[in-house]
Amino acid sequence: KEKEFFARIKKNRVDPSVSSVGNPVPDFYGEKISSVKGYRQWLKDQRAFNKKRVSFV
């Protein structure tokens, strides 16, 4: 079960090489995820980072 979860984290996390001072990487390893609600928020944060990266680059 944990392997599957970490595989999802790995698949959905952002590329840290494109971070900047104005757009830092949100919780790259998913360390702050403690519930399903937290996981959903983590996914939203990852998508928001990618959206900002695409629109500002």
Automatic annotation (TrEMBL):
Keyword line: Membrane, Mitochondrion, Mitochondrion inner membrane, Protein transport, Transit peptide, Translocation, Transmembrane, Transmembrane helix, Transport
Keyword Repressor found: no
Entry protein name: Presequence translocated-associated motor subunit PAM17
Signal peptide, first to last residue: none
The organism's taxonomic lineage, starting at the top: Eukaryota, Fungi, Dikarya, Ascomycota, Pezizomycotina
Subunit structure: Component of the PAM complex.
Keyword Transmembrane on entry: yes
Main localization of the protein described in the UniProt heading: mitochondrion
UniProt record, GO biological process: protein import into mitochondrial matrix
Annotated family: Belongs to the PAM17 family.
InterPro entries in UniProt: Pam17
Membrane topology classification: Multi-pass membrane protein
Cellular compartment(s): Mitochondrion inner membrane
GO CC terms: PAM complex, Tim23 associated import motor
Function: Component of the PAM complex, a complex required for the translocation of transit peptide-containing proteins from the inner membrane into the mitochondrial matrix in an ATP-dependent manner.
